[in-house]
Amino acid sequence: MLDTLFSPNKSLILLVEESVFYGEAREMSLTVVMLAGGRGERLWPLTSTRPKPLLPLPGGETLLTRLIRQTRRLAKNYVIVIPEGSAGDKIRDSLRGADLQVKFVKQDKPLGTGHAAQKAMSELPPSSNEVLLVYGDLFVADETIRTLASLEPPAIVGVKSSEPWNYGVLEVDEKGCLHRIIEKPSNAKPGSLINAGIYLLEVQALEEALKKIGVGPRGEIEFTDAVQELAKKTCVKVVEAEGAWVDVGRPWDLFIVYRIVFNESVGNKSVIKGEVSPLASIKGPVYIGPNAVIREYTVIEGPAWIEGEVGPLSRIRPWSFILEGARVGAHTEIKNSILLRGAKAPHFNYVGDSIIGEEVNLGAGTITANLRFDHAIIKIKLKGKLVDTGLKKLGSIMGDYAQTGINVSLLPGTRVGAFSWVYPGLTIGGDIPDCVLAKPGSEGVVLVDISDRVKCNVLSRNKNV
Length: 465
What we know:
CATH architecture of the largest domain: Alpha-Beta Complex
Largest sheet: 9 strands, parallel
Strand order of the largest sheet: 14-17-20-23-26-29-33-36-39
Number of strands: 41
Helix content: 10-25%
Number of domains: 2
Distance between the termini: 41 Å
Mean pLDDT: 90
Radius of gyration: 23 Å
Shape: globular
Structural class: alpha/beta
């Protein structure tokens, strides 16, 4: 029996065979708690128009709905913590019509994961004895949820990381019990076990632990402090994650996530459902969705995922994802890039190692450069700090509804804000904010606010967020 929660664009193929995946439903009074109130500042400009749990995945799912699909065989009840304002409204609307018993709880102040958990616990159904608490911006393999569900609480998931200094490192004793969580230790070694943000806990014990914690050094109430309180009294079993785990906190993390989705659902075979011209050339594994159109003299080199329209005379290179309603036109080349729903690269474009937001329109001749002239690692500023991406090739990250004029060149690592315009013929580097026109001036590029000309429906401009 195949089961799907809901299919936003009717092209969802990430289905789960119930009998294979979960077997018998776990018979216990369990509530799934999802913390989905994060701002996603480091994911700008993709989070200018959506909260980060709603980042889209190939096939129509989001990070949040994937987690719901993975956990819905374990429990009937959900409590989802959402931010106030339009960001929270978007999460609520995304689940409208789903076959789901869910209670939404607004986190009125962004005081951390511990504060979000406190809000959630106050809204649990009376019958709840245990909670499966998950951070709502995670991408995890099905095996991880299945393994945790087979355990008795309290338990926490850990994962080996190549960058443990960016996370909470788990110290585990000889019995496999949690000793403590060390937040972002500078001396952590690659391969250390880090906190994966997935917990199976008893309600009563967790409520008592949450009462004992307060604001920490970072000015927030940390949920991990409550977990460490539990670890002082009992064995909190640490389970190493099986399969993929990605903390989606930076735009380029989506490249990893999209590849995993492809391998999960397509693998080394091809799935062709749409219209393909006999004059097109397709090599390697591909997914071509039911609404896809591949026109004459198009060359597709898989792995590639296409839900939209490609061609004629287009080239799609490996690890490109063209989502529903997106269009790639004549003499355009796409390489290792993601075109979100409705994005358009209609003619004479090169898009390399880039993420192009929903309904973006690239003017003729727009080029995304993806390699620095000196071949150095590309750096991007996140939350005011210059961050090494670890990538020698990274093109542009463009927010939803942005557009470029003809013959625009975007330098490696350039980010263009949602609803923004780039004037024809410009060469742009760095960041272009949301809702501006970048145009030439006497001393370089001038940024002009266009919010009076364009309906800039940006979350960061909503005073209620």
